[in-house]
Amino acid sequence: MRTRYGLPIALMLGFLGPVTAQDPHFTQFYAAPTYLSPAFAGTTVQNRFALQFRDQWPSIPGAFVSYNLAADQYLGNLNSGIGIIATRDQAGSGALSSTSFSLQYAYEIRLKHKVFLRPALQLGYASRSVNYSKLVFNDQLSRGGEVATYEHYDGRKKGYSDIGSGLLFFTPKMWVGVSLQHMNEPNQSLLESEAVLPRQFNMHGGYRFKLRSGGMVRKDPQSIVAAFNYRAQGKFDQLDIGAYYERDPVFAGLWYRGLPVKYYQPGYANNDAIAVLVGFKAGDWRFGYSYDITISKLALNSGGAHEITTILEFSDKRKKRSMARRRVVPCAKF
Fold this sequence. Notes:
The chain is mainly β. Helices cover 10% and strands 54% of the residues. The chain has one domain (6-326): monomeric porin ompg (Porin). The chain has 5 helices and 17 strands. The protein has a 14-stranded antiparallel beta barrel with strand order 1-2-3-4-6-7-8-9-12-13-14-15-16-17. It has a two-stranded antiparallel ribbon with strand order 10-11. A hairpin with a 2-residue loop joins strand 13 and strand 14. The longest helix has 10 residues, at 6-15. It is globular and about 70 Å long.
C-alpha cells in the first residue's frame, strides 16, 4: 500500500538547499538512440519516430515517471542527419517535473566504403517546476494530513538553455560512440541558490552477429545484438550491458545495470537491476516492453520498473533500397 508523505517531504528538504540532479534513464536505450547521443540523428534510411514511457519504482511513494518523444531523418544530399527530441520527467507524485526540447544535427563523414564518422551538436531549452499543491507539509502531518497547510509558496519554475554533443563511428557490423550532455552545466535551482545539472558523459557501442547455417545466411534472417552503455554524471556512474536475439518479427533480450566492482560505501555495491526485454515488429512499427528486476537493497519494496517503447520507420521504398545498398547502420533498434 502506498503512502503519500515520504518522497514529497524529501523533495521539500531538497528545495531548501543546493541539489545535484540527474537525468532520466531508459532501459531500452537504443529504442530512441537520439536520446543517448545527437550523433544518432539520421542513422536510418527512413524517417523515424520513437515514443518511450517509463514507470520506475511504482511501489515507492512518489515514483519516477518519464516520457521521451523523438523524431529524426537522414538528409542524403547534405550527408547530414537532423532530429528533434522532447523529454518529460515527473517525480514525487508529480510535484517536481522537468521538461526539455532539443534540436539535433549530425554530419556524416565517409572514411571509406561503409565506414563512417558522425560528429554532432544538440541545442535545447529545458524547464523545471514544482507543484506545491501535491506536497505535504509538517503542519498537515501534525493535524492528520488531510487538511490545508498554513504554509504559503508562490509557484516556482526555472528555465535554462542546454547544450550537448556526440561522436559516432560505425561500420556494417559494429558501432562505438561518445556523447557529452549539459556541457554548459546549467543552474536549475528553483530558489535563489545553485543547483547545477552536472555534465553527463556516455560511452556506448555494440556489435551485430548475423547467425548462419551451412555457411549461408538464413532466408529468415536472425541476429544477436550485443550492446553496452556506460554513463557517468556527477559522482555517480553505471554500466548497462546485455544482448538480444532478433528473428523477424520478434526479439527478446537480457540486460544488466550496475558496476559490481564499485561500492559507494561499505555494504552498498553498485548493483541496480536485471532487465528482461520482449518485443515484435509489425510492418513499419516496432513495439518493445522491458521490466527491470531490482537487485539493489530496494528490491523488496521498489516494484521494479516498467518501460514501453513504440517506433515507427517509413520512407519511399525505392529510396530505401537505393540508400541501403551504400549505407548500412548496424545499431540496435529495439
